[in-house]
Amino acid sequence: MRRSTYIRSFVKQSSLMIGASLLCVAGFAGSAHATDPIYQVDLNKTQILRLPAAAGSVIIGNPSIADVTVHSPTTIMVVGRGFGETNLIVLDRDGQTMVDADIQVTSITPSNGVRLFNGTSRQTYSCAPYCQPSPVLGDSPEHISANSPQVSSSNAPSAIFDQGPVSTSGLTGGPQGNSAFDGMPAIPN
C-alpha cells in the first residue's frame, strides 16, 4: 500500500511541476511579443500611421512585402505590396526607436468582387456592376498576363503629390517646409 501511495504522490507532483513549467514558458514566450504592435495591411491598400514625434529614419524590412511613403515628419503611409510579414522600424532624430512593429500583408476578396477557382488556378474579378478582370498577386499567371496593363500600374512605386520643399535626405517636408529631416546628411546612392 505504501508503494502505490508513493507512486500516486510522485505522479501528482510531477504533473503539477510539468504543468507549472509549461505555463511559465508559455507566459514568457507570449510576453516577449505582447508589446510589439502588429499592423495588418491588405494587399494593394494603404494604412496611415501617425507617429508620436518627428521621424529621423524609416526602415522597412522587406520592401517587396510592404512599401513606406513618408508624407510628413509625423505621418507615414504603409502600402501592402505582397503577401507575408515584414517589420517596420522608425527612429527619431537622435536614433532612438519610436516604432518597432510587424507588418502583415494579407489579401481579401474585394467587397464587390469574386474569385474563381479551377483546380489550382485562381482568377479575381471586380463586379461593380459588371464583372471585369482584376488580377492580384496569387492569381494564375495566364490571368495576370492577359490583363497585364491593369496590373503594371499597381506595381509602380508610390508617388508623393506634395509640393512641399525637399530636404537634403530627399524626403518631403510638407507644405510648411519645416521638415524634421532638414540638416541631416543625405544617404549616398
TrEMBL record:
<dbReference type="Pfam" id="PF13629">
    <property type="entry name" value="T2SS-T3SS_pil_N"/>
</dbReference>
<protein>
    <recommendedName>
        <fullName>Pilus formation protein N-terminal domain-containing protein</fullName>
    </recommendedName>
</protein>
<feature type="region of interest" description="Disordered">
    <location>
        <begin position="138"/>
        <end position="189"/>
    </location>
</feature>
<feature type="domain" description="Pilus formation protein N-terminal">
    <location>
        <begin position="39"/>
        <end position="106"/>
    </location>
</feature>
<feature type="compositionally biased region" description="Polar residues">
    <location>
        <begin position="145"/>
        <end position="157"/>
    </location>
</feature>
<dbReference type="InterPro" id="IPR032789">
    <property type="entry name" value="T2SS-T3SS_pil_N"/>
</dbReference>
<feature type="signal peptide">
    <location>
        <begin position="1"/>
        <end position="34"/>
    </location>
</feature>
<keyword id="KW-0732">Signal</keyword>
